[in-house]
Write a structure and sequence with these properties.
SCLT1, elongated, coiled coil, mainly alpha
Amino acid sequence: MYGTRDPKMHSLISEYEDVIQATQIQLQETKEDHRNLKQELLALISENQKLSTKLDLEYKERINDSVDGKLSDILHSELLLNLQKELDLCKSEKKRALELYESSLVLIEKLEQELEQNKENASCGHKNAVSISLSENILGAKLKNTKENLEAALNGRDQAERENLAHKTEIAKLKMSLESGNKLIEDFKIREAEWKEKYIKSEQNYAMLQATYECVVKSRNQLESKMDIYSKNIRELVDKNNEARLKVAEALDVAEKAIVEKDATAIREYHLKEETKRLQLCLEHVIDEAGKKVASEVEETEKKYEERLKTVLKELTEAKSESEKVKEEKKKVFSRYKKLERLTSAKLDKEKINLIKGSETEITILENHLASVYEELERVKLKYDEMAGEKRKSEEKYSEEIENLKSVATSKEERESYLEQTVKELTSQLEVKVDELNESSRRCEFFIGQVRDLQVENKSLRKTAGKCRCEKLRARLQKLNEMRISQTSELESHVESQMKLNETWKEEVKEMTEKFERKIHLIQKECDDLKAKNKKITNELNVCKGKICFET
């Protein structure tokens, strides 16, 4: 039995040894595979850590560099979700790989222990064949289990490799998405730079527009002020034009009256054929008296007005000379003040230099004295500034009043020129009327000559028709007397109208002269006040100078 079983056992032992060697080879291969898997897992873990750090940095940079809040929030949320998913998958895969690795290590240890036991049992195989057979059965079952476990480990390894490939593909996709995100961020940065440039340009344009708007507003205000001035000037011109129109209308009325009178005189010429020399002499005497009176009154008013204008101009020149004298006195006082200040400063410096060598108490006394002197100088300066301000105000008032007087004088001159023109027009009208009257007188003389001839011719007929002729002549003389009375009344009315015009002119001239005299008196009063103020200022300056000289 033992001999028969000996080759079988030998064969079984050899097979068992072959199986054990094969299992050892498989175990070594599985160990190497596990080592490779471990290295790959560690590499994946390190890569995941690096990628996580990179993603965190990029995420922070994108958060810091993001321009649009909505887009950055969406991108960050999507990236965070993807990264969280990938991290969860990596963690789960890591756990699975670690579990498989631990289970494979446990199986390898168990198999090694079983191999050692089998070796020990193989050494004792000759002794216990029954135990060997049992151990063979147990080892077969265990080998089956190990094969199944190895197949499961291999399948797990394949799954892990597949999952790693999938993770690698996902990581590549994430890298692509990160690159695209980086590109988007760069595009956003470029757009942000462009927007910043546009914003700067828009700010510059806004500043330019603001400056142009301010210039336009200033020009508009200037134009509005000019328009107000022009509107005032236009109103004044319109008022003057209306006054001129009224005066022209008055002149036209006068001219129409003159034309009517001329027509009346032309009509009357037919009735003045039998006018006598007495009527002509009376008319000439009345016309001469009226012309002389008008001319004398006009000359008197012109002389008075010219004399008053001369006096006003003299007073203005005197006031200007006084103002210039005051300015010169001001300059002299200022120069004297500067000289005194310089002298006092020089003396004080010398006294300081001399007193530095002396005692300290004297120096303090002199410094106090200097402080008091400087305070007084400042007071004098303040008084001087106050006096200068008052003087400026008075000069401004004086210049304004001079300008007002000049404007009044110009208006009076214009009024005078207008009155002169009206006087000239009226004198021309009077001359025309005088010429017409001279012509009428000449015609009257002609008719008087004819009357004389008729009287000579009618002397022969007086004897025959004395009574009838006398009655006709009396009736004719009555008609002539009536015509003379009507003409004299018309001439008297015309002379009265001229006298009324002269009286109105006189009243206007008186009013203008009185107003002008009042303004001149006011100006004289103001000039006297200014003189008094200047005297006070000069007295105060002299007092200050005396104090300064006394203190020095």
